[in-house]
C-alpha cells in the first residue's frame, strides 16, 4: 500500500473521547471529507486494493446507508463501475427486499430494490466504518437473497477490538485504517 497516501488519510481521522456516550472513542471522518486530496487518496487506495484482490472483476459497489454513500459512488466511479444503494427500511421506492438485524438495543432493517442486481453479479460492500459487523453482515445476507456474490466488505476505518471481521466470515474484509 502507498504509505505516504495512507498516512495522509490517517492524519484526517480525528478522535473524540466519550462520544456519543462515556467510554466510547469516536473516530470522526469529517476532516477527511473536507480535504479533497485526502479523500481522493482514500478512494485511490481502496480502488487499488480491489483491483489487485479481484482481477476477475467486480460488477457493482454497494454503499451502505448512510456514510457508505459517501464512499460507494466515488469508489465505483474510480473503478468504472455502478453503485447500488443499501438503505434503511422505508427509504427506497418500488419493490424491495429487506432483512432485519439486531442492534445493541432493538432491531433495524436494511433493504435494496429487488431489481438492483441480477443473480451471480459480483459485489463489494463499502462503508465508512466496521465496528461490530452487524450492519455489514445484514448487507451480506440481503445481497445473498438477491443471489448476488459478495466478493468482499471494505471500510475506511475498522475498530478491531469489536471483532466485526469475525462476524463477516467467510467474506473477506479490508480496511484502510485499524484502531
* Assembly state: single chain
Shape: globular
Taking the sheet with the most strands, its summary is: 7 strands, mixed
Biggest sheet strand line-up: 5-6-4-3-7-8-9
Helix/strand class: alpha/beta
What's the gyration radius in Å?
Answer: 16 Å
Notes on the structure:
It is built from six helices and nine strands; from the N terminus they run αββααβαββββαβαβ. By secondary structure, it is of the alpha/beta class. α1 (3-10) crosses α3 (36-53) and α3 packs across α4 (68-79).
Task: Describe the structure in brief.
The chain is an alpha/beta fold. It contains six helices and nine strands, in the order H-E-E-H-H-E-H-E-E-E-E-H-E-H-E.
For this entry, give a set of tags.
single chain; 179 residues; alpha/beta; seven-stranded mixed beta sheet; two-stranded antiparallel ribbon; 9 strands; 34% strand
Topology (SSEs and partners):
Layout: H1 3-10, E1 14-17, E2 25-28, H2 30-34, H3 36-53, E3 60-64, H4 68-79, E4 82-88, E5 96-103, E6 106-113, E7 122-130, H5 134-145, E8 149-158, H6 164-168, E9 173-178
Parallel strand pairs: 3-4, 3-7, 7-8, 8-9
Antiparallel strand pairs: 1-2, 4-6, 5-6
Helix pairs in contact: 1-3, 3-4
Amino acid at each position: 500500500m502507498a504509505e505516504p497516501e495512507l498516512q495522509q488519510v490517517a492524519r484526517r481521522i480525528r478522535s473524540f473521547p466519550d462520544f456519543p456516550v462515556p467510554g466510547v472513542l469516536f473516530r470522526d471522518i469529517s476532516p477527511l471529507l473536507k480535504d479533497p486530496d485526502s479523500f481522493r487518496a482514500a478512494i485511490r487506495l481502496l480502488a487499488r486494493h480491489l483491483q489487485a484482490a479481484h482481477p476477475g472483476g467486480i460488477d457493482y459497489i454497494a454503499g451502505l446507508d448512510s456514510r457508505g454513500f459517501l464512499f460507494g459512488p466515488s469508489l465505483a466511479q474510480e473503478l468504472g463501475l455502478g453503485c447500488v444503494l443499501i438503505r434503511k427500511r422505508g427509504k427506497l421506492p418500488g419493490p424491495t427486499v429487506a432483512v432485519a438485524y439486531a442492534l445493541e438495543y432493538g432491531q433495524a432493517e436494511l433493504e435494496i430494490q429487488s431489481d438492483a442486481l441480477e443473480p451471480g453479479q459480483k459485489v463489494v460492500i463499502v462503508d465508512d466504518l466496521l465496528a461490530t459487523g452487524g450492519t455489514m453482515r445484514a448487507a451480506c445476507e440481503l445481497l445473498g437473497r438477491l443471489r448476488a456474490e459478495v466478493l468482499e466488505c471494505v471500510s475506511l476505518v475498522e475498530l478491531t477490538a469489536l471483532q466485526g471481521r469475525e462476524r463477516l466470515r467467510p467474506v473477506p474484509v479490508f480496511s484502510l485504517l485499524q484502531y
